[in-house]
Design goal:
Elements (H helix, E strand, L loop, with lengths): L6 H19 L10 H14 L13 H13 L11
Amino acid sequence: MKKLKNEGALFKQALLAGVKYAEGRGVVEFEASDSASEKLLYIYRLLVHDKIIQALPEDQVAEKSLRHKLSIWYSKQLPKDHPLLK
């Protein structure tokens, strides 16, 4: 798995976008006490369920790979000249 440029910043934005997507669908309401790991797993499962991203094999589902997968998903939504992609 090749690390993306600015992957940490991309992940932070991806998590915010994922929370907005999930709450916009009305399927979940995240609490302030929910950890980033819990949100990450829920958002990943929701995006797979909605067929927005392809599922990883279950033996590869780990926080690091999910962060990478969400970062890729978010980066594909950004315009090509976005600062996070440079």
